[in-house]
Amino acid sequence: MDSTPSSSSLRQTWLIASYEVSKRFTNTKGIAALIAFSLLWTIILLYPVQSASVYMLEPGFKELVQHIYGPDALNQLFSWKVAEFAVFWCIALYVFPMFSIFISADQFTSDKQRGSFRFLSLRVSRDSIFFGRFLGQMLIQSCLLLLTILATIVLVLSRDTGLFMDALVSAVSVFINVFIALLPYTAVMAVLSWYASSARQASIYAIILGLVSFILIAIINSQLPALSFLSWALPGSQLSLMIDTQGLQSLMYAPIPLIQAVAILIAGRIYMQRSAL
Q1: What is the pTM for the complete model shown?
Q2: How far is residue 221's CA from residue 89's CA, in Å, rounded to a whole number?
Q3: CB-side exposure of 23: number of CA atoms within 13 Å?
Q4: Of all residues in the chain, what percent are helix, strand and coil, respectively (each to 5)?
């Protein structure tokens, strides 16, 4: 008997998430953003990724890096079987979180401005709306991430078709790890987009919050080393450590963004439930 309301809530959440995805890829604004995203990543793949991967294949480049940073520097990065994915990994870990701030900034602001959120909440629970929008944004970013990964595979095959299986294994690893890394960023934007009055304002709040948090953590690390563990509360705190990892080894850092995302979503749900429309 209790399973019916739960099933209905999950169905509503999924319907909202599906609508978010379809809205993003079917309306004029979403298509324009997709074209801009595709053009930007085409430039990234054809220049930074392709050019840097050529250097990584040169033994002398590895020796140069180890001479500058130490004999054990970036060993895992140079051990990738597909050089293009090694470079893509370094770029995606930092670029996609920045994209996430802007892509997921309008989870609630437009509905609040139009006054349609009050109408929607009369028919759907706030939990379904909150988690449905979050899930929808993660699905959108998954599609964009998958698009860039497929383009990278094409780039690899244009160099050597024999690398297909290695490229596929690297692609799966990169997708899983970057997807997990995006969870706390999208969760933060869910909260900020509910607080802000516009998507632009939510993005500005996110940038200010990130900079202030970074400065405070830097001060704590230098002045109060015993409290350095507080840096793990900041989304993206594990990214610099993930650079020199690959495959299953990268998943050792997965609990950090997962815990951050759960904590932020719980706080966001409480905030949303107690907020007046």
Answers
A1: 0.90
A2: 27
A3: 12
A4: 85, 0, 15
